[in-house]
């Protein structure tokens, strides 16, 4: 049961990494310093005040950079692999000691990195649509939603991880349906008859 709970927390934190790379790590660090969260062996560095300060600075810089027009689109090229790495690390930091080291890392890479990558790719798509349709004017609104989503998802992942996983699955289904409908409407509007 502890393994499943750890994976649920990891999935939620990884999804948050797909929105903003540093926000979930900062939330984990603050929770560790407050004694609300104990990272797994090897990730005790999250509970260091200097790491918390560094993550806070990195978070502020990342969030601010996404408000600069056209820079936000360029950041996505760097943020995609960074989100996958952060998703892997967050999942590994909460993984259970019941699994072997190999199984823990394999699960963290596949589940954590995969979840973060999928969420990041959807944010890239949303930002691309926003840039194409509004010339980037609506991108700050998208950026605000992403960092707020990352913050709330990170906190909820530590408090109610199973609910977060259900929410992520529902949102994934909704997103896939939305993209399919959008593609279908685009194809229908291009049909000459």
Automatic annotation (TrEMBL):
User: Per the database record, which ranges form the DUF4126 domain?
Assistant: 7-180
TM segments? Answer: 12-34, 46-68, 102-127, 147-174
> Which keywords, in A-to-Z order, does the entry hold?
Membrane, Transmembrane, Transmembrane helix
Give any Pfam family that matches.
Answer: DUF4126
InterPro entries, per database record: DUF4126
The molecule here is called DUF4126 domain-containing protein
Q: The organism's lineage?
A: Bacteria, Pseudomonadati, Pseudomonadota, Gammaproteobacteria, Moraxellales
